[in-house]
Amino acid sequence: MTQLENQSADLPAVLERLGLKAREGYSVGITGPPGSGKSTLVDKLTGRAREAGQTVGIIAVDPTSHLTGGALLGDRVRMMGHSHDAGVFVRSMAARRTLGGLAAATRDVGRLLAAAGFDLTIIETVGVGQSELDIVKTADSVVVVAVPGLGDSVQTLKAGLLEVADLFVVNKADRPGADRTVAELRAMQGLVPGAEGWLAPIVQTVATENQGIEDLWQALARHREFLESSGERARRRERRLEAEVFDLVQRKLQERLQERLQSDGELANLLEAAKRGALDPHAAAARIVAQLDTPAD
Ligand SMILES: Nc1nc2c(ncn2[C@@H]2O[C@H](COP(=O)(O)OP(=O)(O)OP(=O)(O)O)[C@@H](O)[C@H]2O)c(=O)[nH]1
Ligand SMILES: [Mg+2]
C-alpha cells in the first residue's frame, strides 16, 4: 500500500508480486463536514457488515494532514472499535505521503483491498474541497453526512457534494433540528440532478447509539441493487476508467517532460524564455509539446 501511495510500484506489479488477482469489490464513500460523525458511522457500519459475514477494508483519507501531521489521523483510526478483528483492515492515508493525487492512490489501495478479498471497502474523507470530491467519487455508493443545528448546516454542504450523494445521512439526530435538516436536504435535492431513476434517500442516525444504522445498511443494499439493475454501475465504471486513463496519460507526459528537461537544451531554453517573460506561456507550451514530439537525441 505504501508503494502504491508513493508510486514506487504500479498496481498490476503489486498484485503480481503478492499473487493476487484483480477482483471487483464494492465500495462505499463517506464524506461530510469535520466532526459530523463519519468515523463513528464507519465503525458502526463495519459492525453491521461483520454481522452479515462480510470482511471490511477501511481507508481513512486525511487530505489536510500535511498541516496537522499524522498523529491526529492515527488517533482517529485507533478510535475504531474493530482493531482486533482479522476481518477488518484499516488503512489511514495522508496527503503528504502520496504523489500524483490522493484520488489515484485511494483508488489503487481500494483495488488492492478488493483483490486481497475484502468484501466491502469504506472510504472516509472530510468533505471540504475538490480533492475530497475526487476521492469519494471513486466509490460505488457515496454517502454524504450532515448534522442538525448550527443554523445552516445544509448550506455548508458544497453543491458538488449534493451532486455526488447517492444517500444522505443526517447524523446526530439526537440533537434538536434533525427533521428540519432532513426537510432542507429534500428541498435542495430538487435543485441538483442525481442519477436517473434514483432519488437519494435521507437516513437519520445517532451513530454513537447505533441508531439508524440498520436503515443505512438497507438503503446501501437498495442502492447497490439499483446500480446493478439499472446498468448505472457499468456506466460509472466506464466513466471512471476513462478518467483514470486520462489522468495516467497526463502524469506520464509530465514525467516525460521532466526527464527531457534534463537532457534537451532546446526544451530547457523554451521554459527559461517563458520564465523570463520573453515567451508567453501559450506559445511556450505549444512549442514544448511540439519539441516533445521530436525524438530525443
Ligand atoms: N450526540 C451525538 N454525537 C455523535 C454522534 N455521532 C458521533 N458523535 C460524536 O461526534 C464527535 C465526532 O465524531 P467522529 O466520528 O470523530 O466524526 P468525524 O466526522 O469522523 O470527524 P473528522 O474525521 O474529524 O472530520 C465524537 O465526539 C462522536 O462521539 C451522534 O449521533 N450524536
Ligand atoms: Mg473521522
- Number of DSSP-assigned strands: 7
Strand order of the largest sheet: 3-2-4-1-5-6-7
Quaternary status: single chain
Regions with little confidence, pLDDT below 50 for 5+ residues: 65-71
SSE arrangement, N to C: HHEHEHHEHEHEHHEHEHHHH
Largest sheet properties: 7 strands, parallel
Task: Give the key terms.
14 helices; seven-stranded parallel sheet; binds guanosine-5'-triphosphate; 297 residues; alpha/beta; globular
Please tell me about this protein's structure.
By secondary structure, the protein is α/β, with parallel strands linked by helices. It has helices spanning 2-5, 11-18, 38-51, 65-68, 70-78, 102-115, 130-136, 153-156, 159-164, 178-189, 213-230, 232-263, 265-276, 281-293; strands at residues 26-32, 56-62, 88-94, 120-126, 141-146, 167-170, 202-204. A 7-stranded parallel β-sheet has the order 3-2-4-1-5-6-7, sandwiched between helices. Helix 10 links the parallel strand 6 (167-170) and strand 7. Helix 3 (38-51) packs across helix 11, helix 6 (102-115) packs parallel to helix 7 and helix 13 (265-276) runs antiparallel to helix 14. The longest helix is centred in the C-terminal third of the chain and has 32 residues, at 232-263. Residues 65-71 have low confidence and may be disordered.
How do the helices and strands line up, and which of them pair or pack?
Blueprint: H1 2-5, H2 11-18, E1 26-32, H3 38-51, E2 56-62, H4 65-68, H5 70-78, E3 88-94, H6 102-115, E4 120-126, H7 130-136, E5 141-146, H8 153-156, H9 159-164, E6 167-170, H10 178-189, E7 202-204, H11 213-230, H12 232-263, H13 265-276, H14 281-293
Parallel strand pairs: 1-4, 1-5, 2-3, 2-4, 5-6, 6-7
The structure holds guanosine-5'-triphosphate and magnesium ion (MG).
Guanosine-5'-triphosphate (GTP) is lined by residues 34-40, 76, 126, 171-172, 174, 206-208.
